[in-house]
Amino acid sequence: MYCPVVHLGYPGSDFVFQVTPNPNTPVGYSIRSTLVDIIDVFEVNQKECARLSLEYPKWNLPRTFKLKSGVPITTEPVPGKDWQLESTIIEVQILYDTT
Length: 99
Known about the structure:
Order of helices and strands: HHHH
Structural class: mainly alpha
Strand content: under 5%
Distance between the termini: 14 Å
């Protein structure tokens, strides 16, 4: 299934895939679909939805998302990961609202 991308960068840039997971890859698709499911299931209880969305990095492999500022780095950066959770949630929410 193809998932359209909301481009945060300028036209023709690859900026969006440096900040958020690419929805056309298996990893990006699974991350985005899981976040859509969280938003869909907890649509009625927004406080619980926000809490679970912000805890989502705990359920993934380490360093899938960037650490919060001030947290000491204990592992090496992983190429192709270290995405921003907040930007990913915003993109997923925009796509979810338009469908």
